[in-house]
Write a structure and sequence with these properties.
heterotrimer, A mainly alpha (314), B mainly alpha (287), C alpha/beta (233), A: 314 residues, mainly alpha, ABC transporter involved in vitamin B12 uptake, BtuC, 15 helices, 2 strands, globular, C: 233 residues, alpha/beta, Rossmann fold, six-stranded mixed beta sheet, four-stranded antiparallel beta sheet, 9 helices, 10 strands, 35% helix, 27% strand
Amino acid sequence: MNKKINKTILSIFILFILVLGTVPFWGTDYIMFFCLLFCVYLSFSQMWNLLIGFSGLFSLGQPAFIGLSGYTIAVATHYFGLSAWSSLAIAGLFSILFALFMSPFIFRVRGIYFGIITLIFPESMLLLFSNWEYVKYAQGMFIKPDHPISITTMYYVAFFIGMSALATVYLILRSNLGLGLMAMRDNEEVANTMGVETFRLKVYCFLIASLFTGLAGGIYYIFQIFIQPQEAFSIGWSVKLIFIVIIGGIGTIEGPIVGTFIFVLLSQWLAEYFSVSMIILGIIAIAVIHLAPKGIMGTLQGKFGLRILSPHWE
Amino acid sequence: MEDILQPTLNGILLGGLYAIIAIGLSTIMGIVKVMNFSHGDLMILSSYLSLVFMTRLGVSPYITFFIVIPLMYFIGYYFQRFLLNRILGKEMDPPLIVTFGIAIILQNLLLLIFTPDARTLMTGLGLKTIFLTEYLKIPMNYLVDFLIGLGVIFFLYLFFQKSYLGRAIRAAADDEIAAKLMGINAHDIYAKAMGIAMITAGIAGILVGMTFTFYPHTGSQYLFVAFGVAIIAGLGSMRGTFIAGVILAIAQLYGGHFLGPGYQMVSGHIILLIVLLIRPKGIFGTV
Amino acid sequence: MLALKVAGLNVYYKDFHALWDIDLEVQDRKIISIIGANGAGKSTLLNTIAGILSPTSGYIEFFGQRIEGLPSYEMVSRGLSLVPEGRRIFPRLSVYENLVIGSYLNRSKREENLSKIYNLFPVLRLRSSQMGNTLSGGEQQMLAIGRALMSNPKVILCDEISLGLAPLIIKGIYREIKRINNEGITVVLVEQDITRSLKTADYAYFLLQGKVVLQGPPSSLNEEEVKKAYFGI
């Protein structure tokens, strides 16, 4: 019975991907915009879920990669005349390098400090970039590659990044790395005694997450055309991610998909009022943590064994 | 070289204030083992509360101490009791998410209610200074902050060392199960500890409001101050917190002095990261 | 009068059925031993009585009052104290503070009890301002017992108090246990050390894989029975 439901949902899911992949052919510009945002946030949230849901890393440092990536592209296209796509590739590289830079600081402390130490990086970058003449201080920069890019191309890049993020998480969890993560999530000390190098796993996940977060951030800014420090490194990104992952269900692969969908819908509605939207997202996240800590997909999984993508070790 | 004396002196005085800001966060981290992301925002909340009472009742900020401080105790007590106690357990993340959520909600609520305008709690002290030499002066409000900071830390130290509740809190922090076996209701203790932490945050908030201008986002700036002090000090030492406060303040002021005012906060962050690299346990860390 | 009565107790430790239908009686002012090998369920039993764990079925009566399922911090006020497995003294509190916390609910008798404990364990008076984690194993054990006594309990539960201690020290501690009992306090001892338990106790229960397999006054038990009950062969 459960297998049948799972199969149906799997087909719906595949259909959904096909629909998403063909949007430029049948959708309006507005729908494409919506779907592009979906793909971008899907990457962010899959990665954030990998960190918090599977590796136990409450990272508030993701905005560092988003902003760094955006600015790399801005600088590369503006000062060096590089194409958007080479800039994007470099941005991805820089994200990983920055994650490597962060690692000795964030992994040396005990668990409860991890969150706030990761937060220091985007906060510091916000201050530094606002005071930096090269990037035009807090006024921001335009991203204008020499060759204009069509929206369709942008969309497919975003789609590709989003699906890659999803596929990467899926493959990781089914690999040995994933097995180690599960063990670590359950009981880190015991996992260590079984030979699971928990420290290394965490760093790997952090690096992978930085790559996809950076790439998704990059395409977001290519689309946005304009970048400013207050927005690029803003803590608001983290608030949105927390909301998505909690509502969707921490520690499930389907969770962020559902959460992203709900969020992108909601954000169109709340677009006008930043502060109010932050308050609402915050309240919902807290309420969900208290009342349904596993989120939508987590609760469904628990009650009905609804398992499409998430691994289940028999 | 002489003009480094003023930032140094200011740093020492400011350190006292930074110590009170930090002690609430440090205490909760050590006892309930939760990183309270909303600590800074709760502190600034008390600044705004003081502002409200000041303007509504037409009293000086000093009088507002008597209203705001008890209010902060109850805010802390019920915050712990209803929002945090229920989700304490093996998983580290839910409390982090809740405190983070509260921080965001508070910040944005304050923004909506009070607008992004700069505020301050006016007292006569802001204008007074004591001149030690022709070039060296002590700003009066910094001095007051320092003395109150010293007093609060000292009083808190006595509380934890000598009082029954203080000992019970320390026992619960050491071993929750064993404490329960002594008849100590751990969750109730945590709520009281949070109340006490909020008292210190309330004092800090009013002092900050009297000394500097504040905005809705000032809270998160001070969160980093509090955290920086906690890391530099290492958990578990009151004396360490005070000294760490001075260190961080001096680092910030030197950064502002040599690099420019925009770099003041960042200098603090850099010192924090350096300490993390070379001595993650902190200078006085006992844990 | 029964100090403790346990009837039909079933306790699960996570998914593991740790205790099966335990029936047990502890007479007031006596010393009862609960003996068994590692994993037999002895600590689980004490922890359940002390309120750290909750049973899924069965009940526990303390001087006629039902206490099963009550949280552990309610036990002290009723007169039940646990000396936990592994001692669990507060490492960052001084000896004096550890003892004084023991009388958290009972402050009026504090000074009186304190001098009694210092007389019982003079080394604690010597080390009264030292931090808990600087004491030796034997001293920590004495501290844990002293702490449990500070609340004037009617019943004291002792979980493996001889673990990791030298035989001479153990002898001394058991001497004090007998002394405490003479003052009218009921003692429930959980031990792996059969000989010592049987020598001290008025009545013994043997646990094997979560079930009571043998019970009786030590004098009535023969070696064969005891071996079977302990090792399960």
